[in-house]
Amino acid sequence: MRTQPTKSFLVLILTAISIFHLNSCRQSSSGISSPTSSPPIVGKIDSSPVVKQLWYDQFDNANWQENWAIKPEKSWGLANLEIITDSSGRFERVLRINYPQGSASPSVSRKDNAPLGGSQFYADLGISPHDSLRLSYYIRFADDFDFVKGGKLPGLFGGNGASGGNIPDGTDGFSTRFMWRRNGDGEVYAYLPTSKDYGTSIGRGNWQFQTGIWHHLEQEIKLNSPGKANGRIKVWLDGVQVLDQEGITFRYVDSLKIDGIFFSTFFGGGDSSWATPKDTHIDFAEFSIGT
Question: Of 2.60.120.200, 3.40.190.10, 3.60.21.10, 3.40.50.300, which CATH number belongs to 56-290?
């Protein structure tokens, strides 16, 4: 004699089926699946939409500095720049930055009468300010490059920028340069209103630069809403996401935006222990800015 399922048992089965269906098909009002609370996966190929390019330069023009709209103030080391033919053949022309033996930061040059190595300038690029931008460029360290203790690399900036221990106040500027560290460890070295004494180290060691090869380096920043710590920095090396840092405060006022590229590169560091032990160089190619 076949036993009939009880009413309570049938109700339990139907309830379980309903819950499974809702969890499988739950969507937001926009029709996009609700985001999970899991942290972003780092080290995976990025699947973000194609970047809309706003500005581009591959150093094929003798007047390339005009395309960058370089600010005359706070610029130095322009004699250490040269446009050369790429020996690898990957690019036609590249920007080489030279670092003479014994050179480090400008403060070391002033204090110790050391050579001035590297270069620095702010570039507005002739584009309008934005709340979110993505910087892309290629970089190649010399075959015998000695990373010593570390050095600066180009990043984005807003307002008057910030560097050299001058902490921004949330209304006047910020910067998000890259750095290399010992053994080629990479990081974002950001000057923020929340920084203490000097810049804030973000993601140190999440990736590593190699010598003698071209790396594709990308940085995307999204500014926070004033009053909220919801800014974000993402970094990709050779197409692989290596950093996704949330909870960042770049500004306290909405009028402060991302203005362009802070091209800043030198060994250091504020003393001679950071200096390069030999003449060396870094090559840069195909800078672009997009949204």
Answer: 2.60.120.200
